[in-house]
Amino acid sequence: MGFDDLFLGNTGREGLILNMGSGSTRRAEGIVDSDIEHLQNVDIVTDGPCLPFSSGVFYAVISEAVIEHVKDLGFFMNELRRVLKKDGAVFIVAPFVHHFNAYPNDF
């Protein structure tokens, strides 16, 4: 099973996918897009530490170029775990070489 299958809703699994830090791009239907500001296609505005979702709602979470901006990484990861279903999956990308990151909020 590849990324598209697991993280873009092509598995036939019932449930939702959370895209943390989505920006204005909608990847696919059935994905809840969240970001720290209200942008086009953002469904939920949240900064991540206290996610406004019930426990066990999502079968997958996508988080690209977000964790380097999180002050309390342990709390953030626990929140991702909390909102995941028991057999859920998380896809996290942290940039290694990036020409610019927002100072002073790059941790």
List the helices and strands and how they pair.
Elements: H1 3-7, E1 16-20, E2 31-35, E3 44-45, E4 58-64, H2 73-83, E5 84-93
Parallel strand pairs: 1-2, 1-4, 2-3, 4-5
Q: What strand order characterises the main sheet?
A: 3-2-1-4-5
> What is Rg?
13 Å
Mean pLDDT: 81
Structural class: alpha/beta
Shape: globular
Largest sheet: 5 strands, parallel
Distance between the termini: 33 Å
Question: In sequence order, what are the helices and strands, one letter per element?
Answer: HEEEEHE
Q: Strand percentage, roughly?
A: 25-35%
Number of strands: 5
- How many helix segments? 2
What is the helix fraction of residues, given as a range? Answer: 10-25%
- The low-confidence parts are none
Report on this model:
The protein has 107 residues and is an alpha/beta fold. It has 2 helices and 5 strands. It has helices at 3-7, 73-83; strands spanning 16-20, 31-35, 44-45, 58-64, 84-93. The chain has a 5-stranded parallel beta sheet. β4 (58-64), α2 and β5 form a beta-alpha-beta unit. The longest helix is centred in the last third of the chain and has 11 residues, at 73-83. The protein is globular. The model has no long low-confidence stretch (mean pLDDT 81).
